[in-house]
Amino acid sequence: MQKITKETYIKWYEDMLFWRKFEDKLAAVYIQQKVRGFLHLYNGQEAVLAGALHAMDLSKDKMITAYRNHVQPIGMGVDPKRVMAELFGKATGTSQGLGGSMHIFSKEHRFYGGHGIVGGQIPLGAGIAFGDKYHGSDAVTLCCFGDGAARQGSLHETFNLAMLWNLPVVFVCENNGYAMGTSVKRTASHEDIYKLGLGYEMPCAPVDGMNPIKVAEAFDEAIQRARKGGGPTFLELKTYRYRGHSMSDAQHYRTKAEVEEYKKIDPISQVKDVILSKKYATEADLKKIDADVKKRVLECEKFADESPYPDKSVMYDVVYEQEDYPFLQHKL
Ligand SMILES: Cc1ncc(C[n+]2csc(CCOP(=O)(O)OP(=O)(O)O)c2C)c(N)n1
Ligand SMILES: [Mg+2]
């Protein structure tokens, strides 16, 4: 793994703060109805992404996830302005404004979405890894999903085939404690989701998902194993989301005190504490980063605001169609 240096900590601080503020902005513009439909935010879970990106080889490795998917593509190199524009439904968005919040996608940056069907991306992630193995590439796919998705049958079918075919994939359960309003405790007779790997003899482990160092170390081991032909790993990242499931969640299933408890181990604060205690930067240096992040987020909003909506004529251009399909005339 690349060494974790002073520069890594500063990058983690800057990246995680940017993702946090980018999504805080989304929450604000959602209320102004600039973003419509569903909006699921990642606040609190940023260490999972920061640690994963450190361990990945971004020139070839791939990622697929569920609908909590706005900041992962940014981490993988997609222009955040285009992500914001997609959320605004604008033509300059990553999918010309036709996908929206749950469907951010960038083939160029190997980010394969953005999936609204809970657990739907689990077999797709294994399929991407199958493709890489078939074509002789040593790329590794990170297939991310939530604790709720871990209860889907497709996980078991996928784990079985991924082990049978020794696929280069890391299965990543981001256990944030809840699937909508249903706590992990209420979904199964056990709470150690990572142990689902045991039934398939898949290497598996729990990871402190609030600490990017622990995350990076766990991902490095799993990614290296997959890259060297050692097959899949299943990691359960213990994390937490500060905001509701989506913007329309009254959060009656948990207390404010519980949320506050987790904020005490906030990944951004943890990294900030290391930076200050090891004197990697001063408070004043970090304030400069904060100001720069704020400016960059405002630039994204301005870009999205000023971009045009897609023309009506493109509406069916990206929908699968078959020339001899007899029932519908698709083109407007
Ligand atoms: C197959 C399917 N069933 C139900 C839903 C409704 N639904 C949307 S999100 C969600 C909860 C999933 O929770 P989890 O996998 O823990 O992910 P998180 O939202 O916590 O990131 C449910 C049940 C859905 N989208 N798809
Ligand atoms: Mg969850």
TrEMBL record:
Name of a matching Pfam family: E1_dh
EC number: 1.2.4.1
Swiss-Prot/TrEMBL catalytic activity: N(6)-[(R)-lipoyl]-L-lysyl-[protein] + pyruvate + H(+) = N(6)-[(R)-S(8)-acetyldihydrolipoyl]-L-lysyl-[protein] + CO2
Superkingdom of this protein's organism: Bacteria
GO BP annotations listed: pyruvate decarboxylation to acetyl-CoA
Transcription found in the keyword field: no
Domain Dehydrogenase E1 component positions: 15-311
MF GO annotations: pyruvate dehydrogenase (acetyl-transferring) activity
Keywords on record: Oxidoreductase, Pyruvate, Thiamine pyrophosphate
Keyword Metal-binding: no
Cofactor(s) for this UniProt protein: thiamine diphosphate
Quaternary data: Heterodimer of an alpha and a beta chain.
Function according to Swiss-Prot or TrEMBL: The pyruvate dehydrogenase complex catalyzes the overall conversion of pyruvate to acetyl-CoA and CO(2).
Protein's name in the database: Pyruvate dehydrogenase E1 component subunit alpha
Taxon lineage: Bacteria, Pseudomonadati, Bacteroidota, Flavobacteriia, Flavobacteriales
